[in-house]
Amino acid sequence: MAAVDKSSATIRTAVLSDIDRIAAIEREVMSPAIYPAFFFRQALSIFGDGFLVAMLNGRPCGYLIIGQHNGDASIAEIYSVAVSSESRGAGLGRALLDAAFVWAKSRDVKTITLTVSPENAPAIGLYKSIGFREIERDEDYYGPGEARYILTAVV
Ligand SMILES: CC(C)(COP(=O)(O)OP(=O)(O)OC[C@H]1O[C@@H](n2cnc3c(N)ncnc32)[C@H](O)[C@@H]1OP(=O)(O)O)[C@@H](O)C(=O)NCCC(=O)NCCS
């Protein structure tokens, strides 16, 4: 794995010119890709500044999407978070989650929820280290025999 210079990492709101790169990260890390490129284009308008990008050496290397629930704005959900393989283990995932909590606090969100596969040890490790706790296991969520955990954290 190439060395990653953490000092040059920053988190900012996504812009149109990030979309191709973010869609490429999605294709690289999610197999099969969960979201098509067009979803990310739409997410710019839907999620606004809840669509965050981790920049490393001037290049998008990860992203996170968070939005408030319809009907209960005290709950926000993280819809996706991913970091490109060559930039992992350098704190970008944690920095994206920290930025999501800052985003949530500024909107008076009280609880953040997300969904994760029980097999996804790196993501579960990250979420638990930040304070997320499992509240439910939902069988067949991703397809037959593919469960999800629902995790929640207090903001
Ligand atoms: C989950 C993911 C975003 C983590 O990104 P990252 O930039 O490598 O994470 P960080 O470097 O910030 O690591 C933060 C913490 O995550 C946990 N973690 C990271 N990699 C881990 C691994 N391989 N095994 C167990 N825990 C791990 C650790 O608690 C770590 O804290 P530490 O560095 O203090 O030990 C990244 O692995 C990823 O993109 N995975 C593929 C996409 C995905 O599964 N997204 C989540 C869908 S729910």
TrEMBL record:
It comes from the Bacteria. It is an enzyme of class 2 (transferase). Residues 9-154 form the N-acetyltransferase domain. Keywords: Acyltransferase, Transferase. SUPFAM superfamilies: Acyl-CoA N-acyltransferases (Nat) (SSF55729). The keyword Acyltransferase applies. It holds the Pfam family Acetyltransf_1. Its EC number is 2.3.1.-. One of its GO terms (molecular function) is acyltransferase activity. InterPro entries: Acyl_CoA_acyltransferase, GNAT_dom, NAT_camello-type. PANTHER family: GNAT FAMILY N-ACETYLTRANSFERASE, LD18367P. This is GNAT family N-acetyltransferase. It comes from Hyphococcus lacteus. The lineage of its organism: Bacteria, Pseudomonadati, Pseudomonadota, Alphaproteobacteria, Parvularculales.
